Amino acid sequence: MGHRSDLTRAARLSVAPMMDWTDRHCRYMHRLFSKQTLLYTEMVTSPALVRGGALHLLDHDTSEHPVALQLGGSDPDELAEAARIGAQAGYDEINLNVGCPSDRVQSGCFGAVLMEQPALVAKSVAAMRRAVDVDVTVKCRIGVDDQNPAEVLPEFLAQIVGAGCERVTIHARKAWLQGLSPKENRDIPPLDYELVHRMKGLFPNLHISINGGITSLDQAEAFLDAGLDGVMIGRSAYHNPTDILAQADRRIYGTGADTTPEDVVAQMLPYIDAHIDGGGKLNQITRHMMGLFAGRTGARVWRRTLSEQASRPGADRQVLLEALDAMQTLAEAQEAV
Ligand SMILES: Cc1cc2nc3c(=O)[nH]c(=O)nc-3n(C[C@H](O)[C@H](O)[C@H](O)COP(=O)(O)O)c2cc1C
């Protein structure tokens, strides 16, 4: 049980599951910024896991803990089996995606469309809960299409709590299943943070994390101070990891030292060497590092050096050292002015 309470604490701040973005390299780097923030994988569908084709997606480094596996699916037995595979692979939490509106996902009846089927979600959660000892959680929206969130969300939450869901993350906007692209569905439906606060009032014992449009650690702290249990950050954590994660251990968890992007680059070098020695490409890692110096002097020369050089044949850690040098030269030139 000690394990479970650790995870509850970790969930004060989390980096959202993001397809194609929060792969193992991205998570490894985020972990260098913050020892405590809860990290999520990209969504992996339960059929892909159960049929065995996607087992490589479970690969991760032991340093990534605490780390949660996000599943997509809607067949309770299959989700239970996928959860078991995930827990066995070492994940600390299994999360069910009830928020993703993409077409591909809808066609398999995954993701946000499940907001319309709370009983099926509850059945899935219960089956996953029986299959594993680790935490089982849900990430959802406030509703879809013409649903009235103030009515459907409490009913949805009551169902998943009854099924044994340990924590929930609420992306505080609707998904529109027709007519909007997945990207538009992350920006256009209006955010309703107030409704998420009301859910905390209705479900005081449920651990609730809020998600959607949060762009600073100040904002995250304000949500925690206002009584929410956790804050999940997606795009800002990806594009600007330094601002979101470098001070997270001290400010959100009250222990640990701040980190710097320079420290993180230095610690990424041996990881990059090992990746390249194993036949990997530099760009598979550095594509997640473009935002490390966002908002700082030299950010542009950093990004340009990586984007011009990291895909070249034979590219290795030298590209990062050159990018750091170029930033340093620029900073010195600016000081001299
Ligand atoms: C590139 C990208 C991929 C995403 N993939 C997933 C996913 O696999 N599962 C999921 O639940 N949400 C996914 N999301 C949604 C995020 O988890 C998050 O809910 C959303 O971006 C809102 O948070 P933000 O405003 O902090 O980015 C994705 C978002 C982005 C930008």
Describe the structure.
- The protein has 16 helices and 8 strands.
- It is α/β, with parallel strands linked by helices and 337 residues long.
- It folds into 2 domains: 2-253, Alpha-Beta Barrel (TIM Barrel); 261-336, Four Helix Bundle (Hemerythrin (Met), subunit A) (Up-down Bundle), CATH 1.20.120.1460.
- An 8-stranded parallel barrel has the order 1-2-3-4-5-6-7-8, surrounded by 7 helices.
- Helix 6 (118-131) packs parallel to helix 7 and helix 15 runs antiparallel to helix 16 (318-336).
- The termini are far apart.
- The mean pLDDT is 95.
- The structure holds flavin mononucleotide.
- Flavin mononucleotide (FMN) binds at residues 16-19, 21, 42-43, 70, 97, 99-100, 139, 171, 186, 211-214, 233-236.
- Flavin mononucleotide binds at residues 16-19, 21, 42-43, 70, 97, 99-100, 139, 171, 186, 211-214, 233-236.
